């Protein structure tokens, strides 16, 4: 069990404003990889606190990339806008291109505000110093196929034919966008065609930089195609576990980004707690599951890998009742008895920051497993018990930000109307 909270709680830091983030930045130190989590994909404060932390890391510690749990093609459009001071397209129009459900994850005013800040920050810097915004995820098979065909037809017609062949291989099964159906019924040589395309693109990528980061874009769209094949094959029951395929793809994408931009670059990663918190400190290990946080710690700890999780006691969240269903604001019940969130609420007043790294007392106090709430894009508050992940908190994260009361984030469909939304108004309004 935890050590007496009367002794341990004195080691917590208050977190009522951004000036209280100092202990976190000191603990991050010279880490090259900083992973910032979230306990849901629909909470305003998780986005804004991550934005504040990221701004400091960019301005004060020289971080040059934001990498997120989003699709590569959509995020690359945003990346180009952020890095191009001459592009005057309204940010809302750019973010409307995030049209795959759940659209609210990236098509929201919180991201609009942060993207606007990034664009302004980049405007005075030489191109090679500008901070980028990239998607790590694997879902965008059809979009990546379309982009590859159109781009290569202009830049590399011989390789474009390989993209056309790959597209034709999968196209008969695209109806209904049922990826599992694609891989249950498509021809066996589809994978070979995608792998051949990736090999050609990687060998020829040096020729593609007529457009901004064109070679990188071509290579990573090819990588999405290769790993999407494995991911949806796993979903259909014909391969390794789809969760592990997806998280390995996100790490492979990250490694490609780091290689492209150079060893001196440092990256901030935004993903759900279930991806960034070390899986070995949860029941995921028992089930044979790995995640991004674990893989990065295993491979790059010598370069500095820092994991910061988030949690909330109660409030509201943006989510849906079923996959593909309309989004809505849902109440987040007060955390269950015996959970980490309920314990912190009972012992503290307001938001707190807990820094486990290099603090033996805190590491020991939170070394036993307790339930830690995780809310997905599909959420049923009435079935709360299933939303808690048994977690050794001090082993899962290097730091934990507990936000006692939180509110749902603000999707683009909600227009600014004078109500106060801290730090979420779109750039330029």
Automatic annotation (TrEMBL):
<dbReference type="InterPro" id="IPR007815">
    <property type="entry name" value="Emycin_Estase"/>
</dbReference>
<dbReference type="InterPro" id="IPR052036">
    <property type="entry name" value="Hydrolase/PRTase-associated"/>
</dbReference>
<dbReference type="Pfam" id="PF05139">
    <property type="entry name" value="Erythro_esteras"/>
</dbReference>
<dbReference type="GO" id="GO:0046677">
    <property type="term" value="P:response to antibiotic"/>
</dbReference>
<dbReference type="InterPro" id="IPR014622">
    <property type="entry name" value="UCP036794_erythomycin"/>
</dbReference>
<protein>
    <submittedName>
        <fullName>Erythromycin esterase family protein</fullName>
    </submittedName>
</protein>
């Amino acid at each position: 069990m935890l050590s007496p909270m009367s002794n341990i709680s004195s080691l917590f830091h208050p977190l009522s404003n951004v000036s209280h983030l100092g202990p976190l930045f000191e603990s991050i130190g010279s880490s090259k990889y900083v992973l910032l989590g979230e306990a849901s994909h629909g909470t305003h404060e998780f986005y804004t606190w991550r934005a504040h932390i990221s701004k400091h890391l960019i301005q004060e510690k020289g971080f040059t990339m934001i990498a997120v749990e989003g699709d590569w093609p959509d995020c690359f459009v945003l990346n180009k806008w952020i890095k191009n001071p001459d592009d005057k397209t309204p940010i809302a129009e750019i973010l409307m291109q995030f049209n795959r459900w759940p659209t609210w994850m990236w098509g929201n005013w919180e991201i609009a505000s942060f993207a606007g800040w990034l664009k302004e920050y980049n405007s005075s810097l030489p191109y090679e110093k500008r901070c980028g915004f990239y998607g790590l995820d694997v879902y965008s098979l059809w979009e990546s196929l379309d982009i590859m065909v159109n781009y290569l037809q202009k830049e590399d017609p011989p390789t474009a034919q390989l993209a056309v062949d790959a597209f034709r291989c999968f196209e008969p099964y695209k109806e209904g966008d049922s990826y599992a159906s694609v891989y249950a019924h498509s021809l066996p040589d589809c994978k070979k065609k995608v792998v051949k395309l990736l090999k050609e693109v990687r060998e020829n990528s040096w020729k593609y930089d007529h457009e901004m980061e064109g070679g990188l874009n071509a290579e990573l769209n090819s990588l999405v195609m290769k790993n999407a094949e494995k991911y949806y094959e796993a979903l259909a029951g014909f391969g390794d576990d789809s969760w592990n395929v997806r998280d390995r793809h996100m790490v492979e994408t990250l490694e490609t980004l780091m290689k492209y931009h150079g060893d001196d670059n440092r990256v901030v990663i935004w993903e759900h707690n279930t991806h960034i918190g070390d899986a070995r400190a949860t029941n995921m290990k028992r089930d044979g599951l790995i995640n991004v946080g674990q893989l990065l710690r295993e491979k790059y700890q010598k370069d500095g890998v820092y994991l910061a999780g988030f949690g909330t006691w109660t409030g509201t969240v943006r989510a849906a009742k079923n996959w593909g269903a309309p989004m809505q604001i849902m109440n987040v019940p007060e955390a269950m008895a015996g959970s980490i969130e309920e314990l912190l609420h009972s012992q503290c007043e307001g938001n707190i920051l807990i820094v486990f790294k290099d603090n033996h007392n805190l590491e020991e106090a939170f070394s036993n497993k307790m339930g830690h709430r995780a809310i997905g894009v599909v959420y049923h508050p009435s079935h709360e018990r299933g939303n808690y992940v048994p977690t050794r908190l001090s082993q899962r994260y290097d730091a934990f930000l507990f936000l006692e009361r939180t509110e749902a984030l603000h999707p683009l469909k909600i227009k600014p109307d004078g109500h106060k939304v801290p730090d979420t108004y779109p750039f330029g309004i």
